[in-house]
Structures are given as structure tokens and as C-alpha cells.
Amino acid sequence: MTSTKLHPRTLIHATGGPRYAIALAIDALGTGLLRPFLLLYGITALELSATTTGTTMTIGILIGLTTTPAIGRWLDHGARSTVVATSMLIRVLGVALLLTTPPGHLWPFATAALLLGIGNQTWPTAHAALVTTITHGHQRDTALAAGRALRNAGLGVGALLATACLAGGTTALRVLAAATGLAYLAAAALTWSVRLRADTATTPATGADAGPAPRMRALLAANVVYAFCLNIFEIAVPLVLVTGLHASPVWSAAIFVANTVLVVTLQVPVTVLMSRFSRRTVLALAGAVLTASYLGFLAATALGRDWGPPAFVAVSVVCTIGEIIYTGSATPLVAALAPSRVLGRSLARLQLSTGFGLAVSPAVITALAPHGPVALWGGLAAATLLSTSAIAPRRAKRTTALEPSPRAGSPDDHGAPGALLIGEGFVAAEVDWPGKYLT
Q1: Is 409 strand, coil or helix?
Q2: pLDDT at 7
Q3: Closest CA to 54 of 126, 102, 133, 109
Q4: What CATH number labels 12-200?
Q5: Distance CA 163, CA 157 (A)
Q6: Rounded to a whole number, what is the distance in angstroms from the first to the last CA of the chain?
Q7: What stretch of H or E contains 197?
Q8: 249-257 contact pairs (CB < 8 A, 24+)
Q9: Do domains 12-200 and 211-404 have the same CATH topology?
Q10: Are 85 and 192 in contact (CB under 8 A)?
Q11: Domain 211-404 - what CATH class?
Q12: How does it sit in the membrane (predicted)?
């Protein structure tokens, strides 16, 4: 079997190059400074009610999601780094409006929340399209995993810095917002300088690329449920530990930090390890692990206040592994399924399903929690297991519905670079990579 190990320098180039890697780190650091505390900013700095602030933020996220189809079409015209930089600049405008909003004024804050929502929902699709364009096969999986690990590290550092500064009150919040805006601006400038686009206009559609766009209905529906795992450590675990088991909030904080550290350290190694299996099989495995972890949380709640919190810590490791496997396989699977001419729209549909899952999961979790741990954890386990069964591998004659077999002469089959227009200063690493879609 061909090795799937990448040298750090090669991995940096596969992720988008040194400048783009720096841009990702700066963007994540800026996001970590503000996003976890945007609700607090609206309540403290702008003197809005908690309900109004939260509702406004939710509406901004949902409206932001509606822009993803347009972003997908833009990407399908060949744009890559321009779209990523634009998503960052939109957030710069949002932060600038946030800083100029007088206390007690809702509509400027709502507009700022909308711009931040559009930028946050646009970025994942644009970033995935950029990395997918310059990488092939399972090198793509590793590059996307490295980008996620880097982003989580930046978010964590930014959140820690912001937490240390919160003692400064309203002034500190405004300083954090200003630092976020400057970070987004610097990241946008670096990304713009990469000047990468796909030459879709002159690349002939052959083989699978000439076929229709994949429908992926079962995959996208399952992804809505899978995405719930991304909010487990922010919503479900603290809710149960604090209100159900009456444990100290320190347990929730420790679990959240552990989750971040594990994602940063294990995302790339686990993705490389899973590359020997088909992405569809790996995605089904992620669902099985997540289902097992939800049942583990259910069992942990039965241990009571003394042993429940330590058990939650242990089960959270299993849940994090499921999250890592899921995030390392979902986007690469869609990228493998989509013909290059509709890559942007396919990735946009995935982001739409992920964003919808993230948007509704807080309401679903908080609605199930009052009915007891069986309703919460049992309901999550049942829904995830059902989703897993919908995408699990079937007989050989049906496997082509969710993942293609290797295509002779295709870029992903042989690891050859695609048709690209790359600006000055960016060097795409040509890596000997098998990139086969194992089925």
C-alpha cells in the first residue's frame, strides 16, 4: 500500500501555500477573539436584551446560509482565493459596523450580525473549494484536515486571549472587536495575494465530469444530524452537567478544552489512518462512534453527581473521535462525488446542510433535555444511527450511488495537477499520491 504520510512542507503547500496557511491562522485567531463573545458584546456594549441579541444572531446565521448557493455558482465559474478573501472582507464590514453601533440601536447590530453570518457561512465552502482545486485523492483529505486543525488551534488561542481580557469590561470587548476586524483584514490581504483560480472554462468535461451533478439527498439529510455533534460540547454537555447533575461548570470547561486539544492534535493523524478505507465507509464509522458516545453519555448520567462528571470526561473522548472522523470524511466525500464543473454548488449544498444542523441543534437539544436523559441522548443516538444506516455501504452494485470508483485518466486517479491559473508567488506542490477512491 502506498504511504499516505506527508512532509510538513508538502502539507503546507497542499493546504494552499505558506501565505494562505498564515491567513488561515490569523483569520481563526480573530474569530476566536470575538465569535464566542458576540452575545456578550450585544448585551454589555450595546445594552440589548439577551433574547433580542440571541434572536438577531440566529437570524443572521440563517440568512447567511441562504447565500451559499450563490457562492457555489461563483466558485463554479473558477473563482477560488477571491471568494475566500471576500468572505473575510464581508466580516471586516460586519465588525466595522459593530464598532460604530451606538448603545441601544438594534438595526445596525442586526446588519452587523447578518454580515458576520454571511462571511462565516461563505468561508467553509470557499476554503474547501480552494484546497480541493490544488489537491487530489486522499492528499485532499489530509490537507482539509490540516486546515481544520490549524483553524481550531487559532480559535482556541483567540478564545483564551479574549477570556483573559474580559475583565476590562465594555472597553475590552470593543478592543477585541477591533482586533478581530484587523485580523480579518490582514487575512483577506494575504489570501488575495495567493491569486488562485480554476480554469473551468478551458478544461473539457470528460468521463464522470461530463455526467450530471450528484443528488446526494441521503448524504445531505444524514449530514444535518451528524452536524449536531459539533454543538455537543457547547450545549448538550454543559446543560446536562450543570442543570442535570449539578456539577461544577469547571467540568464542562475542561471537556471543551480537551475536545479542542484532541481535534488539533489528532485531526490529521486520524484522517491519514482512515484514508485506507472508502470515505463512505469512514463516514458510516463516524456515525457508529457518535451513536456509541451518545449512549455512553446516557449511561454516565445514571452514575449521579459523584461519578457522572468523570464518566462524561471519558465518553467525551469517544465523541471527539467520532467528530474527527466525521469532519475528516464528509467534505472529501462530496468533493470526490462532484464533477469539477459543479464542485462549488455541491460543496455549498453540504455547507447548507451542515449550517442548518448547527442552527437547529440548540433548539432541538434544549427541547429534549427537560424530558430527561433518555429523550436527549437516546433521541440523538437513534437519529444518528438512522442517518448512519442511510449512508452505510451496500452491495457492490449499489456502491456507485454514493462514491465513484477510480476513473481512468482522471486527476484524482493519478494525482496529477488539474488545470489551474496560479498567481505569482504561489507554488503548488506536485505530490506523488495514489488518490484512489476505495470502494
Answers
A1: coil
A2: 65
A3: 109
A4: 1.20.1250.20
A5: 10
A6: 15
A7: strand 196-198
A8: 251/309, 251/312, 251/313, 254/313, 255/312, 255/313, 255/316, 257/156
A9: yes
A10: yes
A11: mainly alpha
A12: Multi-pass membrane protein
Task: Give the C-alpha separation, 327 to 322, whole Å.
Answer: 9
Locate the domains of the chain by residue range: 12-200, 211-404
Q: Coil, strand or helix: which one is 434?
A: coil
CA 387 to chain CA centroid, Å, is 19
Q: In the chain, which stretches have pLDDT less than 70?
A: 1-8, 10-11, 14, 200-213, 395-439
Q: Over 366-410, what HEC string results?
A: HHHHHHCHHHHHHHHHHHHHHHHHHHCCCCHHHHHHCCCCCCCCC
Distance CA 331, CA 166 (A): 35
Cell of 292: 456509541
Backbone angles phi, psi at 196, to 5 degrees: -115, 135
For residue 379, give the 3-state DSSP assignment: helix
For 106-143, give the DSSP string: HHHHHHHHHHHHHHHHHHHHHHHHHHHHH--HHHHHHH
Q: Hey, what's the cell of 236?
A: 448538550
Q: What is the pLDDT of residue 51?
A: 87
Looking at residue 223, its pLDDT comes to 97
Read off the amino acid at residue 167.
A
- The alpha carbon of residue 430 and the mean position of all alpha carbons in its chain are separated, in whole angstroms, by 26
pLDDT at 16: 75
Can you read off the three cell numbers belonging to residue 382? 437513534
Residue 426's contacts (CB-CB under 8 Å, 6 or more residues apart) are 17, 19, 194, 195, 196
pLDDT of the residue at 36? 81
What distances in angstroms separate CA 376 from CA 113, 370, 373, 381, 418, one per listed residue? 30, 8, 5, 9, 46
Sign of CA dihedral 193, 156, 10, 134: negative
Task: Please state the separation of Cα 213 from the chain's center in Å.
Answer: 23
Amino acid 200: pLDDT: 63
Structural contact between residues 311 and 378, judged by C-beta atoms closer than 8 angstroms:
no
